[in-house]
Amino acid sequence: MSSSTPVIGVLALQGDVREHLVALAEADALARPVRRPEELAEVDALVIPGGESTTMSNLALAFGMMAPLRERVAAGMPVYGSCAGMIMLAEKILDGRDDQQTVGGIDMTVRRNAFGRQNESFESAIEFRGLEGDPVHGVFIRAPWVESVGAGVEVLAELPAADGAESRIVAVRQGNLLATSFHPELTGDHRVHAYFVQLVAAAAR
Ligand code: GLN
Fold first, then answer.
1. Which domains does the chain have, with CATH numbers?
2. Is position 193 annotated as part of the catalytic site?
3. d(CA 125, CA 133)
4. Catalytic residue flag (residue 147)
5. Which of 14, 19, 20, 53 to mutate to test the pocket of ligand 1 (most atoms within 8 A of CB)?
């Protein structure tokens, strides 16, 4: 293995870490779990998994990870956040817990648990800009949506308007930061992970 192959960490404080490690491996990436600042220092990029963002916030603070995460993001480390990971990458959140903190980095406002009670989990075909082939199968589990984005944020996917509901932004990119409301790590379709792996490779060049 060439020493220049980027290593992608998966933040392993809480959430569906294993599924992301598998998806990254299937997208031909070198991936490993990251829990401590010393481990974060050794990776070139990071995935923040789905799970529960309030718990992730607590654990990131307890493990001394919040400040190092913010520093790496500010320094340009590529990060992909799915669901709770999207919340962690938001500069602003709505319906968060009062003491909940985020890493930030993407100039967006994200609403937690936005799709509402009757829809707490659902699946939908998603047109993802920049991915070839069929729509992505979006698995949404108590998912957030992106309420608004700043000028530097590229919208990659929206959930189409249906049944009187507005369309909603569910995937974004800002520079080296990527976030989805849904969980491609649960579907066996690793195109979103492959997209991130390409982004990581481009950032490493
Ligand atoms: N509702 C969760 C939160 O607020 C996110 C759900 C998920 O990651 N599947 O963190």
1. 7-204 (3.40.50.880)
2. no
3. 12
4. no
5. 53
